[in-house]
Hints:
Layout: E1 4-8, H1 17-29, E2 33-39, E3 44-46, E4 49-54, H2 60-78, E5 82-85, H3 91-100, E6 104-109, H4 113-117, H5 125-143, E7 148-151, H6 154-157, E8 190-195, H7 204-214, E9 220-225, H8 231-238, E10 246-248, H9 254-262, E11 266-269, H10 275-278, H11 283-290, E12 295-298, H12 301-307, E13 313-316, H13 321-333, H14 335-351, H15 355-371
Amino acid sequence: MNRSVCILTTVHSPFDTRIFHKQARTLVRAGYDVTLLAEHMRTETIDGIRIIALPVPRNRLVRMFGLTWRAFRQALRQRADVYHFHDPELLPAGVLLRLLTRGKVIYDVHEDVPQQILSKTWLPHVLRRPTSFLFGQLEKAFSRCCHAVVPATEGVAAHLRHPELVVVHNYPDLKLIDTSEPAERNGEETSVVYIGGITRLRGATEMLDALRIAAERHPVRLNLIGSFHPERLEQEARKRPEWTHVSHFGWRPAPEVYGVLQAADVGLACLHPIPRHRVAMSVKLFEYMAAGIPVIASNFPLWREIVEGNRCGLNVDPLDPQAIAEGIRYVIEHPDEAREMGKRGRQAVEQKYNWETEAQELVALYERLLSE
């Protein structure tokens, strides 16, 4: 009889790339019976993963309390060998699962949440630092009750302490990004792509300013894949004259995202220099590299090491639209070098930054926990 795994998330889509396409599918291939609890329209089985639908909450408070409790009760019914949860608000549920079941409990940490709280615009500025400190202490205490902690990066892992702490990077799955067949590109416009949440701190304003500047000399189209936060930011963006050169795809499942990536000419990752961005290993960097396109990224020391170290793109001041535009122009005006940048990025992912190695770490962790 196969070992059973129950994956829980009340924040992410059931088809989140890390949760569904990487971890859940890896576990199915390793012989586990996988159930995923997430907000969804219906209960169904896809790629061997049984998705149990949780209702979409009306607001943040309902999600954090009502939906968390509902996910916990549904998880108890699964009687799983392993419970693997992905959201900080599920920490109390994780502790209860440790106390009330025989299953092994894993806390998967996507972000450095204490640092993230410091830049939450919906939280009054005077409350951010004490809230960050309080959450950090609670996270450390609750996570010690879990059997293992799985951070997505070394930067996220830095503030956590646990005897079974295993970093599982969110590197691209090369099975999802096949560059053997070159994608068709629009010969008239240069396609600049950005994937991920679209916010001011992730460079939404600077990207549009850079688009306007770059388009003064070359025909350029900016393809945005992701959702605007807050909604009024999208309303402001749509009023700008350069919006006529923008294609906004909204949120898309991973296979569709990678299709747009492979048809692009350059990828943007110009996030603002706040503490949590400086230490993050941005997934979009590696996805651009895996798609074989050059990268224009923020000039953080860690990102310089990746981009300049692999000679796969350019690092620029993310707060300077002129510098971003000059990076785009350089790629356009040096097509041979741009192609080589793309090839070197793909090669680096094939050799170092790929999901295959991380999948082995994940499966090895499961085997250790279940052998105890």
